[in-house]
Amino acid sequence: MTPTDHPLRNFLRELDRHADLPANDRQALLDSPWRLRRMDAGGYLVREGMPPLHCAILVNGFAFRHKLTGHGARQILAICIPGDAVDLQHMFLDVADHSVQLVTRATVVDVPRDILNELFLRRPAIARAVTRMALIEGSIIREWVLNIGRRDARQRIAHILCEFAVRLEALQLPADSCGFELPLTQEQLADATGLTSVHVNRVLKALEADGLIERNRRLIRCRSWRALQQAGDFSRAYLHVASEDEFEFAA
Q1: DSSP 8-state symbol, 7
Q2: Do the Cβ atoms of 96 and 48 come closer than 8 Å?
């Protein structure tokens, strides 16, 4: 199996984005034992309160982090995209403190946690890349707290649309003149933004009416990237990806 068709290719690309991995580090990761799973939407990759035995890495499909209140109300904390290792935050913890659930059908690679820990401890470049990825996950969650706590409904929705587009772009996943497919339902967007699904629907219609986006079911096309950034009070700085003066995924 070549690196280009290896199930860990997107994860390796993400590691390379954060550290210049030597060839032997790349090969050590590709040679690690792994198990491939194909799962349906709604399946759990991580369950709060359970011991994390494997690190699940998304090959394709999307997931979200979430926590539940004692009464069952859900708060979505972040979106996970292909290449994300959803268990990095639990690498050295005994119990998962939140859940990760699939929002679409997905292919997942499970790598034993002790193998990743060994690579982390013995290979400094991998340790540096994994640490940066985990810190950026924390940065994203802090931005989401700000989004819910201090931005209005229009800003919250526009901000999530901008974040999703930039993250797809950074991993060279589809976000182009045809737009991108937002995997979250309006109910899930509501749980990510502290709104009701009715309010989410109203905001999306307003963004469309104002000429910022076009929608075709879940396909989102931006008509003015700069205007959408302004509407969402969005800066890509917290994502720690390369800054670009022009990012136009609209024609």
Answers
A1: T
A2: yes
